[in-house]
Amino acid sequence: MRNFILVENPLVKRDITILRDKRTEPTIFRSTLNRVSYSIAIEISKSFNLAEVEVETPLEITKGYIFSKQIVLVPVLRAGLSMVSSFLEMIPDAKVGHIGLQRDEITLQPIDYYYKTPKNLDESLTIVLDPMLATGGSAVSSFNSLKQKGAKKCVLACLIAAPEGVDKMNSEHPDVPIYSAALDRQLNSNGFIIPGLGDAGDRTFGTV
Ligand code: PRP
Of 15, 130, 184, 199, which one is the catalytic site residue? Predict the structure, then answer.
C-alpha cells in the first residue's frame, strides 16, 4: 500500500480487539478509542517539522523546539468527533474545523451537510480525523473541500481501513499519508469493512 502507515504496538492491538468485540458497550468503546487515538497522534507527530527556539531553564539558556506549522484537526462528523479529545490532549494548541458528511446507505456516496474550518489552511498541517476508511468516498470528499479552501499539507488519521478506501485515497489524493491502526480484508456488499467493528459512529454514540 502506498502512503499507508500502520500504527502498531501491543496496546493498539489489544485495544483494536476490544473495539471489534460486538459486546463492547459505548462507554468502553469510547475510552478504548481514545487510547488508540493517542497512539495514532504520536505516530503522526513523528512527521511534524520543528523549528528551533531558545528556552531559558532555571539554570541556563538551551535549545528547544516548537511546531513549524499550525496544526488543524478536522473531525468528519459524526464518528470523527470520537478522536478529537485525545488529539487535543496531545496537541492542545491545535485549531479544530468540522466537516459534516453522511454516507448514503444505498449509493454509499457521501452527502455534504456542514463545513467550517479555520483560516490559513495553506500554512497549516491539516489532520482529518475519521475512524473508518471504507469506500474512501468520505475521505476523498473531505480532502477535496479542504484543498479547495487552500489546504496543502494534509494527513488522514483513521482507526480502521479497507484496502478499497486506501486505493481510492492513493489515486485521488496521492499526497495525503494515511495513518490507521488496522488494515482489514475488504468491504462487504453493503460497504461495511470486514471483519471490521461495525459502525464506529453508532457504537461511539449508542445509536445502534
Ligand atoms: C461512516 C464513517 C466515515 C464513512 C466511511 O460515517 O464514519 O465517515 O462512513 O465510509 P466511506 O469511506 O465509504 O465514505 P457515516 O456516513 O456512517 O456517518 P456517521 O459518522 O454519522 O455515523
Answer: 199
Convert 182-208 to b/e letters by CB count within 10 Å (16 or more is b): bbbeebeeebbbeebbbbbbebbbeee
Distance of CA 64 from the midpoint of ligand 1 (Å) = 40
Q: So what's the pLDDT on residue 103?
A: 82
The pLDDT score that the predictor gives to residue 132 is 97
pTM of the model: 0.96
Taking the domains of the chain in order of start, what are their residue ranges? 4-205
Q: Tell which residue, 159, 183, 178, 194, has the closest CA to residue 30.
A: 159
Look at residue 177 and tell me whether its pLDDT is greater than 80. yes
Dig out the grid coordinates for 130 from the structure: 475519521
Ligand 1 centre distance from Cα of residue 166 (Å): 15
- Our answer to whether residue 202 is catalytic in this structure is yes
Asked whether residue 106 carries a pLDDT value surpassing 90, the answer given is: no
Query: Residue 134 in contact with residue 155, Cβ under 8 Å?
Result: no
What is the CATH architecture of 4-205? 3-Layer(aba) Sandwich (3.40)
